[in-house]
Design goal:
The complex is a heterodimer of chains A (117) and B (113).
Chain A (H helix, E strand, L loop, with lengths): L2 E3 L4 E5 L4 E3 L2 E3 L5 E8 L6 E7 L6 E3 L2 E6 L4 E6 L8 E9 L9 E2 L3 E6 L1
Parallel strand pairs in A: 2-12
Antiparallel strand pairs in A: 1-4, 3-9, 5-6, 5-10, 7-8, 8-9, 10-11, 10-12
Chain B lengths: L3 E4 L2 E4 L5 E7 L5 E7 L6 E7 L5 E2 L10 E5 L2 E6 L8 E9 L3 E4 L3 E5 L1
Parallel strand pairs in B: 2-11
Antiparallel strand pairs in B: 1-3, 3-8, 4-5, 4-9, 5-6, 7-8, 9-10, 9-11
Classes of the chains: A mainly beta (117), B mainly beta (113).
Amino acid sequence: AQKVTQAQTEISVVEKEDVTLDCVYETRDTTYYLFWYKQPPSGELVFLIRRNSFDEQNEISGRYSWNFQKSTSSFNFTITASQVVDSAVYFCALSEASQTGANNLFFGTGTRLTVIP
Amino acid sequence: SAVISQKPSRDICQRGTSLTIQCQVDSQVTMMFWYRQQPGQSLTLIATANQGSEATYESGFVIDKFPISRPNLTFSTLTVSNMSPEDSSIYLCSGRTGYYGYTFGSGTRLTVV
């Protein structure tokens, strides 16, 4: 069965510090997709990244970077030089590419990041 | 990518009443999903909605409580029936677009009093 674990419930950092949000997943599928979403206080979900299971290249987008390691089933997210606007709840999610399933997203429990000015 | 308009954005309802949430997508999507997010919690899948067929509900969710319609590939509704304070949550719809892309509505923040 699939599972996404975000062990960090809450993190607080001072502005300009770097912060890494951890995500560990479980799946029996060999083909799957991993996602990160940001949920600001307004409640909408903001898509950040999608990565498929065959692409282990790390990715950088501005201050954001992602480290995907299949060997440890982890897909960690780092924010460099954090800003107050980064304060939000961040969700890691998994979609299995089963041919028989609906392929919905399974969400982790989320990490609430607070950036202190 | 597709854009989903979700209405209402928030509502305060009396217990025992029902609320219907609508999601309109600006392009056709194969699967639509409905999620519930209870206060301070993660997103939990309520059901998956295919066009022209009955929705498939997850364990713990039943059609009588959360009836769903999916009349075409761009529209879906979720009704929260006979509401109680425990139904106070954010409800989000999502559409699967393209190849494992997922777009979300902006959410409906429901408070039951």
